[in-house]
Write a structure and sequence with these properties.
The structure is a single chain. The protein is of the alpha/beta class and about 250 residues long. It has helices at about 5-25, 35-40, 60-70, 105-110, 130-135, 145-155, 160-170, 175-185, 195-210, 230-235, and strands at about 30, 50-55, 75-80, 80-85, 90-95, 115-120, 120-125, 220, 240. α5 (about 130-135) packs antiparallel against α6, α6 (about 145-155) packs across α8 and α8 (about 175-185) crosses α9 (about 195-210).
Amino acid sequence: MLPKTEKEKKASHKFNCEALELLNASEAPYLVGGGYALRLYTGIQRDTKDLDIFCKAGDCPRIMKVFSDNGYETELTDARWLAKAKKGDHFIDMIFNNPSGLSPVDENWFKNSVKGELFDFKVRYIAAEELIWCKIYVQNRERYDGSDINHTLLRYGKKLDWKRLWLHLEQHWQLLLAQLLNFQFVYPSERDIIPRWLFDELLMRAKEQFDAPTSLEKICRGPLIDQTQYEPDSTEWHYKVVTMKSI
């Protein structure tokens, strides 16, 4: 993405301030995520035309109405996880799950959220643990969030609630192990950021899985991390493809 011009920066700032003012005035519960949350935990700043907010699925229609009543074009982009509010070239993503349906926003997100400011507005950010939980399932051909996770671990790993992250990802522990090995490859001098108890547990599971029987069905869980690239698995190679609908 090309750097913004000063005119674009002013337009983006105005859009974000207006959106946050509407959200706060409505008292609709929401959390800030995306690039602004990443900046909070890593210091990385990105030019972006969108504002990512997270909300519970039941609160999304109310938030959409707030924007619709104030001249925004709104859409339920994907009933599984995403709605949008648009004005000009800028938009707000209202996220209440992830595309695979594995990270639903609930009260615990708000309980563990972090107080902060954004454009001089009081806001709450999604916690780093939930940020990682969402991003670990983004492994598309077009977009891969592994580097964002690595940077979050590097800059914030010593403050993470690793037990809570483990509770989120124990079901898909292989993804966490793969990410932590990736982190160790990228930052070989920073391996101690990862708790030894967690790494030992993951390696034990990786070893033990070879002593367990394999699945009787040919399973492909690829669509849980990439919703577009695993069509041949079901249409040509006769795998039972695991999606949100089949969980």
